[in-house]
Design brief:
The complex is a heterodimer of chains A (about 100) and B (about 550).
Chain A lengths: L2 H9 L1 H34 L1 H5 L10 H39 L1
Helix pairs in contact in A: 2-4
Chain B lengths: L2 H25 L6 H24 L3 H6 L6 H12 L2 H14 L2 H27 L4 H5 L5 H35 L3 H49 L4 H11 L16 H14 L4 H4 L8 H32 L20 H50 L6 H25 L8 H22 L5 H21 L1 H5 L15 H17 L4 H8 L1 H10 L10
Helix pairs in contact in B: 1-2, 1-9, 2-9, 2-14, 4-9, 4-13, 5-6, 5-13, 5-14, 6-11, 6-13, 6-21, 8-9, 8-14, 8-15, 8-16, 8-17, 9-13, 9-14, 9-15, 10-13, 11-16, 13-14, 14-15, 16-17, 16-19, 17-19
The chains are: A mainly alpha (about 100), B mainly alpha (about 550).
Amino acid sequence: MQADLVARVQADPRFQELVQKRTRYNWTMAIIMMIVYYVFILFIAFNPSALAAKLGAGTVMSVGILTGFLIIVFAFILTGIYVRRANSEFDALTAQIKENAK
Amino acid sequence: MMMRPMMIAAGLAALAYAGVTLAADGAAAKSVNVPATSMFLVFVALTLGITYWAAQRTRTAKDFYTAGGGITGFQNGLALAGDYMSAASFLGIAGLVFANGFDGLIYSIGFLVGWPIMLFLLAEKLRNLGKYTFADVASYRLSQVPVRTVAAIASLVVVAMYLIAQMVGAGKLIETLFGLPYTYAVVIVGVLMILYVTFGGMLATTWVQIIKAVLLLSGATFMALAVLFAFGFDFNAMFSKAVEISPKHDAIMAPGSLVKDPISAISLGLALMFGVAGLPHILMRFFTVSDAKEARKSVLFATGFIGYFYILTFIIGFGAIIMVSTDPAYLDAAKKLIGGNNMAAIHLSHAIGGDIFLGFISAVAFATILAVVSGLTLAGASAVSHDLYANAFKRGQVDEQAEMRFSKYATIALGIVAIFLGIAFEKQNIAFMVGLAFAVAASANFPILFLAIYWRGLTTRGAVMGGLGGLLTAVVLVVLSKTVWVDVFGYKDAIVPYKDPAIFSMPVAFILAWFFSITDKSAQAQQEREAFTAQYVRSETGIGAEGASHH
């Protein structure tokens, strides 16, 4: 990439806005996913009996299995939320930056 | 154009070989599974047809490596899911749930959560910077020869481990299901995968993967629905019955013995979570879509399909506890499952739909192996031809046609190596292979890729030391652990008490990369740091990124 193009893009305030917003968003989402997963893993490692607990009297369904299913669904929903924002807001901003840099 | 008749001839030869073998075996009175064999032959005929179609559309190196970059997000999502839903994860996780209940879910979740992480942190930047392989991205502003060499070696280690696991699994599965001798099964898988990849490149590999993913998802959905139907779609009733029947009773609903101590639990979690973002055959698929938007969509679809698939596998495992574990038809003299716990899903298909459905699921399992090994071989061949040959050995001074020709030779060579490895490892305990593949991916590929994209300070020296350090630490720790030292070499006690190395090998990679970068005072290192700015702008905006080719 030519140096002048790089300089022009970097000078665009919208580029700074995009990078700032998206970087924060990316890491927030990644950290949420990691926390959810590692809390689950740490429970398995340190407090398995909490996951073995039953959801209610008379049910065999355990907290662990329900949590497991919910984490799978959560991962998908989180991905969906991310893609929705990235494919609209961030891509629109990117398109403007590209247009401006031409 | 000489290739087409050759391809058809070779395909027919493979089929004829299969036919003859079956006839010979049938004579030996071992039951040949007719529905399974015929359905599998239909799959092979269809995929060879697709390969023929794809071969005519594969003219340039870009076509060969990335299917021309014109795959849609939805198609790529299915293909990614297909790459990930190997026979090992279908039969293995169902078997794990069958034996241990809840513990199977730990693996499923670990395998899944790597996907969102990859989307948030890598997918878009990878797509914006790369061309054919992830080494393109790792070496974007660094010295091509050393960085690509390290990336290619790590990729080949991952591909080899994965391939051995799949080939041995294929041989054993096909031996059991189709009544075909082990060696023949491995050879047939090897020959078909060479045909798909050599002639049809990424386009054929992708479509084979898509077809298989649809078949596998449909088959698994049918099985899970059949299990739930038997209990009037009442989960609680299903779990109650399983708890009553299972010899472990209520223990199958809770964390068990699979994860022994906190270090192992965290280490396994790290390898699973970051391993996905270091698997070369997965990363390569991000270059088959036209832009970052489609790349993101493909991860969304992949996460959905994979998550759904793991929920199905869980239900299938419980279904097998209920419908298979008490039926003497599926048990041997010692009251164990015939063919081992990994056959739980296969036996369940018979319990649900008789010989015809067993045939369908068997054929799908065979197709799954075939599709996954094809993707792996293409990734391995790309590492050899694009990274080692074209960019490291020839320093980029090679024309596209020559590079593509070389990648076809590399595919054939890898295919032959895979066949030999499959045969050589027949009697070995290969349980550690996929785990090691993930550990290496998380400890060598992921750190250099991540640092190359995010850290201005990374230099060639740092990337090389970090990549090699992570690779060697992961391999050495696995060799010294129980899985290899005791289970393979037969020593009495393991030297390293932990099975999963990632908690040690990932920090080693990051620390070495950091240390050897900051202490690198050379002029070249300074240039590499300065080149980060241009890379950063491209990675964030996609300006200058590879587009789709139109023809």
